[in-house]
Write a structure and sequence with these properties.
single chain; mainly alpha; 3-stranded antiparallel sheet; 11% strand; elongated
Length: 111
């Protein structure tokens, strides 16, 4: 299910860029946090929203946590449907920033 775009905050854009960087590769939360600079409490709600609208899919790794000495990781990947939509949304967010910045005029120095 692909729905309308989420609010394209800078944090959402960072998450999408990290996922689009290598769209075939699954990434887990801590790895995404390092790539984006976002804390878990910011990152995971964004991933959940992106998953809900069908741009991202996730899966739990299949390991024996006690044998590995760590908890299972949840891996995230951009979906084939979400990839072109996310790229377009990032491009539009960038174009919007350029339009906004282009609308500012330099301050005149007064003597």
């Amino acid at each position: 299910m692909v729905a309308t775009a989420p609010r394209m905050t800078l944090s959402t854009q960072a998450v999408l860029r990290a996922l689009i960087d290598d769209p075939e590769r699954e990434k887990y939360g801590l790895e995404m946090s390092a790539a984006t600079g976002l804390a878990s409490g910011t990152l995971h709600p964004i991933l959940a929203r992106l998953e809900k609208i069908g741009w991202v899919e996730s899966s739990w790794e299949d390991i024996d946590a006690s044998k590995e000495g760590r908890p299972r990781r949840r891996y995230y990947r951009i979906t084939s449907d979400g990839l072109p939509i996310a790229r377009a949304a990032l491009a539009e967010a960038h174009a919007q920033r350029v339009r906004i910045i282009g609308g500012f005029r330099p301050l005149r120095e007064t003597s």
